């Protein structure tokens, strides 16, 4: 939280900025919820202009909209075409953020190979994690969806990665996370394995012997920071 006594801004101006930022976050959420690509792009640009951190733009704005989409889909209030439209809106907003996210790469805190595990095509959560990690200064190799354990191994070796992060959104594809842990162990490779996605949990990660789990993209940075510094 900002220290009010340390800033040169008068209190009324701080309050006005907070209100303006709240309005931008509401627009970001609404844009994804209503699959409004133009609003997503303009609100993302407004957030950048307001110097909002990437973690807030994604975690408190766009991501909140995607949460609503997930809940509505689960409740059969909307169907696959609307979910696809919301995904495309999220991707359009992430494209506006891309130059900002890539600016962090120069510092190279480490390299993370990210992918959605084999048999699974859900990408949005994984893309959000990639964006957050890039924003935090990591070099991220994104394998995209349907990535096999060997795809992770090859990319990690080629790029000297420290961490492999596998996303799974279906109960049927959770097993592919176990396979990645086992492949890393069998090959006696030095990579840490972290996992996430809606059906994944800390208990599941403990069961398969993974090195870490995070429920949200906001927590992934702290998790990777800890593993890379070990
Ligand atoms: C969007 C979506 C789709 C889109 C995906 C678009 C895309 N480009 O990704 C489309 C329409 C293509 C789709 C297709 C399908 N889907 Co779908 N989909 C969803 C939906 C509605 C939202 C998922 C999402 O994007 N959430 C928003 C993101 C931001 O959240 P997230 O993914 O959880 O990610 C966060 C965290 O989990 C974490 N995280 C994520 N990954 C990682 C990785 C690491 C390493 C870490 C640390 C953290 C982390 O950080 C993220 C950000 O905070 C979910 C419902 C739901 N409630 O999850 C169903 C859902 C996942 N889909 C489902 C199904 C069944 C399918 C289909 C089989 C449908 C079909 N009949 O064809 C196909 C999949 C085919 C396949 N082989 O993969 C089921 C899965 C059921 C199950 N438990 O197995 C769900 C749960 C819907 C349901 N209730 O039935 N889907």
Offer a quick outline of the entry.
The protein has helices at residues 11-33, 37-49, 54-74, 80-103, 124-135, 149-159, 174-186, 202-208, 217-228, and strands at residues 111-116, 139-142, 163-167, 192-196, 212-213.
The N- and C-terminal alpha carbons lie at a distance of 29 Å
- The CATH class designation of the largest domain is Alpha Beta
Number of strands: 5
The structure class reads alpha/beta
What is the H level of CATH, i.e. the homologous superfamily of the largest domain? Cobalamin-binding domain
| Computed Rg | 18 Å
Helix count?
A: 9
Percent of residues in β-strands: 5-15%
Q: How would you describe the oligomerization state of the chains in this entry?
A: single chain
Largest sheet: 5 strands, parallel
CATH architecture of the largest domain: 3-Layer(aba) Sandwich
Bound molecules: cobalamin
Overall number of structural domains: 2
State mean pLDDT (0 to 100 scale): 89
Strand order of the largest sheet: 2-1-3-4-5
Reading the helices and strands in chain order gives: HHHHEHEHEHEHEH
Q: Which shape, going by the Cα principal axes?
A: globular
Q: Which stretches are low in confidence, meaning pLDDT under 50 for 5 or more residues running? A: 1-5
CATH topology of the largest domain: Rossmann fold
In percent, how helical is the residue content?
A: 55-70%
What order do the helices and strands come in, and which of them pair?
Elements: H1 11-33, H2 37-49, H3 54-74, H4 80-103, E1 111-116, H5 124-135, E2 139-142, H6 149-159, E3 163-167, H7 174-186, E4 192-196, H8 202-208, E5 212-213, H9 217-228
Parallel strand pairs: 1-2, 1-3, 3-4, 4-5
The structure holds cobalamin.
């Amino acid at each position: 939280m900002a220290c009010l006594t340390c800033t040169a801004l008068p209190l009324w101006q701080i309050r006005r900025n907070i209100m303006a930022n709240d309005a931008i976050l509401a627009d970001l959420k609404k844009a994804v919820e209503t699959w409004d690509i133009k609003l997503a792009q303009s609100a993302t640009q407004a957030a950048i202009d307001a110097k909002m951190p990437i973690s807030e733009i994604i975690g408190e704005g766009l991501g909140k909209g995607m949460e609503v989409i997930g809940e509505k889909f689960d409740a059969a209030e909307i169907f696959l075409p609307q979910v696809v439209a919301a995904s495309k809106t999220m991707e359009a907003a992430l494209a506006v953020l891309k130059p900002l996210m890539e600016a962090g790469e120069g510092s190279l805190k480490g390299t993370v190979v990210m992918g959605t595990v084999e048999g699974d095509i859900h990408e949005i959560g994984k893309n959000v994690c990639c964006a957050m990690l890039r924003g935090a200064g990591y070099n991220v190799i994104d394998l995209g969806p349907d990535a096999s354990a060997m795809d992770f191994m090859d990319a990690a070796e080629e790029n000297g990665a420290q961490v492999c992060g596998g996303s799974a959104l279906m109960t049927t594809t959770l097993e592919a996370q176990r396979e990645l842990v086992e492949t890393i162990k069998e090959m006696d490779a030095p990579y840490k394995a972290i996992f996430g996605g809606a059906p994944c949990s800390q208990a599941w990660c403990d069961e398969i012997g993974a090195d870490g789990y995070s429920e949200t993209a906001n927590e992934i940075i702290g998790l990777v920071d800890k593993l890379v510094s070990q």
